[in-house]
Amino acid sequence: MRSASGHERIPLWIKILYSLFMCVLVPVYWQNHGPANFLWASDIALFVLLAAVWLERPLLNSMMAVGVLPFEILWVLDFLTGAQLMGFASYMFDAERPLFLRGLSLFHLMLPVIMIYLLRRFGYDRRALMAQILLTWIVSLVTYFVTDPAANINLVFGFGTEPQTAIHPLLHLALHMILVPVVICWPTHLLLKRLFPPR
User: Fold this and answer.
1) Domains contained in the chain, number
2) CB–CB of 36/151 below 8 Å?
3) 92, burial (CB in 10 Å: exposed 0-12, middle 13-18, buried 19+)
4) Span 7-55, pLDDT tens digits
5) Of 108, 102, 107, 103, residue with least CA distance to 77
6) pLDDT confidence of residue 6
7) 4: in domain
8) Domain span at residue 127?
9) Nearest of 179, 173, 171 to residue 67 by alpha carbon
10) Distance CA 185, CA 180 (A)
11) Which pTM value belongs to this model?
């Protein structure tokens, strides 16, 4: 079955399965991690991709692909190496954390699959670059001012797993807001534009 825009619709079972997963994940994460956890780019991607799956709009998925897909691939690689690569997935191997809670975090393995699936189906919307940069800036500012630096959500307090202390935190935030678009979003935009032309 095709939509009014001419592309094949996403199967209903995918939409329902994704929605049911979110109905489980959101309350569990809220109770165990608190609302600030949903500021992580990966968690934002979960919600935006849910909308993309239901609305079937290329821009929504393209934004997440250009800004979040590289980080998700790094997370997957880190997970597959037992968190020896960067340590981003180290919590997945912490036996003190509930197994069910860690199991929910396996969504990181599926996010790249979903993004690439939607890119293949709908193509890459070139408007995503500027839209995602704007979203990144907004989320970075909100994260900096409302979250605990120790959590280092979205790396706004340091480029590793811990907050940095070498420079003033605001200077690091400014560097973060410059480097993410230049080093991550722009090269990814060029690659996606070549690999997944608009449908």
Assistant:
1) 1
2) yes
3) middle
4) 568 999 999 999 999 999 999 999 999 999 999 999 999 999 999 999 9
5) 108
6) 53
7) no
8) 12-195
9) 179
10) 6
11) 0.91
Q: Is residue 2 part of a domain?
A: no
Whole-angstrom distance, CA of residue 37 vs CA of residue 153 = 8
Contacts of residue 178, defined as CB under 8 A and 6 or more positions apart, other chains included, come to none
3-state secondary structure the chain: CECCCCCECCCHHHHHHHHHHHHHHHHHHHHHHCHHHHHCHHHHHHHHHHHHHHHCCHHHHHHHHHHCHHHHHHHHHHHHCCCCCCCCCHHHHCCCCCHHHHHHCCHHHHHHHHHHHHHHHHCCCCCHHHHHHHHHHHHHHHHHHHCCHHHCHHHCCCCCCCCCCCCCHHHHHHHHHHHHHHHHHHHHHHHHHHHCCCC
Q: Rounded to a whole number, what is the largest CA-CA distance in the chain?
A: 56
Contact 167, 122 (CB under 8 A): no
Give the model confidence (pLDDT) of 50-94 as tens digits. Answer: 999 999 999 999 999 999 999 999 999 999 999 888 888 999 999
To the nearest whole percent, how much of the chain has pLDDT over 70? 96
Interval 148-198: pLDDT, tens: 999 999 999 998 878 999 999 999 999 999 999 999 999 999 999 999 998
Question: How many beta carbons lie within 10 A of that of residue 123, not counting itself?
Answer: 19
CA atoms within 13 A on the CB side of 40: 19
Evaluate whether residue 164 is within a structural domain: yes
Report if residue 3 sits inside a domain.
no
